[in-house]
């Protein structure tokens, strides 16, 4: 499992990953900051790692990735 980066809005170093399952199959996951309430859920993500990678993606101030 990929490690979550801190929340880009408040700096919380330990955002949560919530996974939802249908039996043993992961059907959805959401990254949530329990400090400021920011959350991210990529509906078409194939796994929690996809959502973590998207949460961890950052842009520079000029907008370049």
Structural class: alpha+beta
Mean pLDDT: 85
Gross geometry: globular
Please give the oligomerization state of what you see. Answer: single chain
E-strand count: 3
Question: How large, in whole angstroms, is the Cα Rg?
Answer: 12 Å
The stretches of 5 or more residues where confidence is low (pLDDT under 50) are none
Walkthrough of the structure:
Strand 2 (25-32) and strand 3 (39-40) form a beta hairpin. This protein starts with 15 loop residues before the first strand and ends in a 9-residue tail after the last helix. With 65 residues, the chain is an alpha+beta fold. The mean pLDDT is 85. It has a domain at 16-56. It is globular, with a radius of gyration of 12 Å. A three-stranded antiparallel β-sheet has the order 1-2-3. It has one helix and three strands, in the order βββα.
Keywords:
single chain; 65 residues; alpha+beta; three-stranded antiparallel beta sheet; 1 helix; 3 strands; 14% helix
List the helices and strands and how they pair.
Layout: E1 16-22, E2 25-32, E3 39-40, H1 48-56
Antiparallel strand pairs: 1-2, 2-3
Short summary of the structure?
The chain is α+β, with helices and mostly antiparallel strands and 65 residues long. It has 1 helix and 3 strands; from the N terminus they run E-E-E-H.
């Amino acid at each position: 499992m990929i490690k979550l980066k801190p929340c880009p809005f408040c700096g919380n170093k330990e955002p949560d990953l919530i996974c939802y399952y249908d039996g043993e199959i992961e059907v959805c996951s959401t990254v949530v900051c329990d400090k400021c309430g920011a959350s991210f859920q990529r509906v078409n993500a194939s796994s929690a790692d996809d959502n973590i990678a998207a949460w961890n993606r950052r842009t520079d101030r000029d907008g370049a990735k």
